[in-house]
Design goal:
Layout: H1 2-26, H2 31-34, H3 38-46, E1 49-53, E2 56-57, E3 61-63, E4 70-71, H4 73-86, E5 92-96, H5 102-107, E6 113-115, H6 122-125, E7 128-130, E8 135-144, E9 159-163, H7 168-179, E10 184-188, H8 191-200, E11 205-209, H9 210-214, E12 221-223, E13 228-233, E14 236-238, H10 242-258, H11 260-267
Length: 271
């Protein structure tokens, strides 16, 4: 009996030691032990930063049909982050997104970040990490010059084109309610579709943030002076990627302090 008891105690001690060993192997590759958070390590191991960007917004993210290259202020910001994480500004994959697709692409992990004129809202902050703002603009209105419309009240009973899932519709609806007028909306998947609808007379106004509208301005159109509801753009990441979110936020704030962000805006003619 004594031998059996000794055997049993020894067996229990052995099991305890084995479990303790397993526990140590299961420990997360924490920031404390490696200096790199697990989400950033995953990007380093992959060797590329996957980013959702706009391809139809001149000056922010626009795919040049002649070269096939995507360029703009937000692409330059992407390069800064790729260099920060991977030591090489070319180590990123840009995927074109729309206002409707950028959230789902973050959700399913197809992109690590969305840098795509993504307005920070309290509702969106419930689903994603947002950096501090890197650009602020207001919702604006573009109409045909020959329409003779000079302000929001001139759009009473007219149809306004907006992007799907964008914040423009809410901003203009609130302003219209305040002005005591009725307006109608049509939603489109991309900005070029809205501009085409304006040119064809299907809608009487194209509404999105002012800086985006300037990319579609031509000799037949005018952007009205009115601005509605300031829109602050932030870099979005998946809620669980806290290490990546902190790195992005620190980088943007460092760029603000050094003046690099302003220099980048000036390069693309943004104010």
């Amino acid at each position: 009996m004594k031998r059996f008891t000794v055997f049993l105690v020894s067996l229990m001690m052995l099991i305890t030691l084995v479990l303790a060993g397993c526990g140590s192997n299961e420990a997360k590759p924490s920031t404390a032990s490696t200096g790199v958070s697990p989400d950033i390590k995953a990007i380093k191991d992959r060797g590329t930063l996957k980013v959702g960007v706009k391809v139809d917004v001149p000056k922010f993210g626009f795919k040049d049909p002649k070269t096939g290259q995507i360029e703009g202020f937000e692409i330059d910001l992407t390069k800064v982050l790729a260099k920060k994480i991977l030591g090489d500004e070319t180590k990123f994959e840009a995927q074109g997104v729309t206002a409707k697709t950028r959230g789902p692409l973050l959700d399913n992990g197809e992109v690590d970040l969305v840098i795509a004129t993504f307005t920070i809202t309290e509702e969106r902050k419930q689903s994603y990490n947002f950096s501090d703002p890197y650009f602020t603009d207001g919702v604006a209105l573009m109409v045909k010059k020959d329409a003779g419309i000079t302000d929001l009240k001139g759009l009473a009973n007219k149809t306004i084109g907006v992007a799907q899932s964008a914040t423009s519709k809410k901003a203009i609806q609130e302003a219209a309610d305040k002005a005591g007028i009725k307006v109608n909306f049509l939603e489109f998947g991309t900005y070029p579709e809205i501009k085409t609808a304006l040119d064809s007379g299907r809608i009487q106004c194209f509404s999105v943030d002012g800086a985006i509208l300037f990319g579609y301005l031509d000799d037949s159109t005018v952007i009205l002076a009115d601005r509605f509801t300031p829109q602050e753009y932030g870099v979005a990441s998946k809620k669980t990627n806290e290490g990546l979110a902190k790195l992005v936020n620190d980088t943007i704030n460092d760029m603000k302090k050094s003046g690099e962000l302003t220099t980048m805006m000036n390069k693309w003619g943004l104010k």
